[in-house]
Design brief:
Protein name: Uroporphyrinogen-III synthase
Order of helices and strands: EHEEHEHEHHEHEHEHEHEH
Shape: elongated
Radius of gyration: 20 Å
Organism: Microbulbifer salipaludis
Number of helices: 10
CATH topology of the largest domain: Rossmann fold
Structural class: alpha/beta
Family: Belongs to the uroporphyrinogen-III synthase family.
Largest sheet: 5 strands, parallel
Helix content: 25-40%
CATH architecture of the largest domain: 3-Layer(aba) Sandwich
Keywords: Lyase, Porphyrin biosynthesis
CATH class of the largest domain: Alpha Beta
Function: Catalyzes cyclization of the linear tetrapyrrole, hydroxymethylbilane, to the macrocyclic uroporphyrinogen III.
Oligomer: single chain
Number of strands: 10
Distance between the termini: 25 Å
Length: 269
């Protein structure tokens, strides 16, 4: 529970997460006595038909042939394990599981598998981003080993490119599409409040925010404190013209909340 003098008490925060992922973050902000407004700027749609779905089925049927399985998000866990449940009544022994982010790791455990972890003394287990995952000892020498990366279409290539350089035989299993909700620009145009901060949880959400600000002529939002999930996304925000981008240590709620409090304190000083 927050103290009686929460740094966020009475502050208005605009949340941009996909609608089905908003609840936990909104509740966390409200527990800090903040006012949470929600305008989803990312929509997740599973790929269930066509050639892409047939490719996913083939990879799922071969799942026991992979030494390493990497999940880049909670959505990747959800859709991958839905496929696995259809074709593997029991998970095969072979693959080792890896998660980007603590929430993704929790989602894997909830589906009955145990993701690999880093050195907790160095914080890797709780802040596993792409770079931290690539530092794991078990992913350094992969000559001839099969690796599958579960992700959405058009994901960041860093992990796959690096693992191929280390000798891995790599397959991407692209399970969902990320799109901008059709009514997002209109919702931003109709949003007349002045938030104290905006939170974005991915680079793609940031790109969508940039697009809807242009489309809605709400240019003042570019000068609102913007909480980003990494230094990379914060740099991307600055390049897009956002003047007050703050970088969290990672996309987890604890890290995003800490960065948000820092941003609000900076604005109040």
């Amino acid at each position: 529970m927050p103290s009686a003098h929460s740094a966020l008490a009475g502050k208005r925060i605009l949340i941009t997460r996909p609608a089905h992922q908003t609840g936990g973050w909104r509740d966390r902000l409200q527990s800090e006595e903040a006012v949470a407004d929600c305008i989803p700027l990312l929509e997740i749609a599973p790929i269930e038909q066509g050639d892409d779905a047939q490719r996913t089925k083939s990879l799922i049927l071969d799942f026991d042939q992979f030494e390493h399985a990497i999940f880049v998000s909670q959505n990747a866990v959800q859709y991958a394990f839905d496929w696995l449940d259809n074709y593997w009544p029991q998970l095969p022994i072979g693959p080792r599981y890896y998660a980007i982010g603590a929430a993704t790791a929790r989602a894997i455990r909830a589906r009955g598998a145990n993701p690999e972890t880093g050195n907790t003394e160095q914080g890797l287990a709780s802040t596993m981003d792409s770079e931290a995952l690539l530092a794991l000892p078990q992913l350094q020498h992969l000559q001839g080993q099969r690796v599958i990366i579960f992700r959405g279409q058009g994901g960041r290539p860093l992990i796959g490119t690096t693992l191929e350089e280390r000798g891995a035989r790599l397959d991407y299993c692209e399970l969902y599409r990320r799109t901008l909700p059709a009514n997002a620009a209109e919702e931003i145009r109709a949003y007349r409040a002045t938030p104290d901060a905006i939170t974005v949880h991915s680079g793609e959400t940031l790109e969508n925010l940039h697009r809807v600000i242009d489309a809605s002529a709400r240019t003042a939002l570019r000068h609102t404190a913007l909480i980003c999930p990494s230094a990379r996304v914060a740099e991307q925000a600055s390049a897009l013209g956002f003047t007050r981008a703050f970088a969290a240590a990672n996309a987890g709620d604890d890290a995003m909340l800490a960065a948000l409090k820092e941003a609000v304190a900076a604005g109040d000083s």
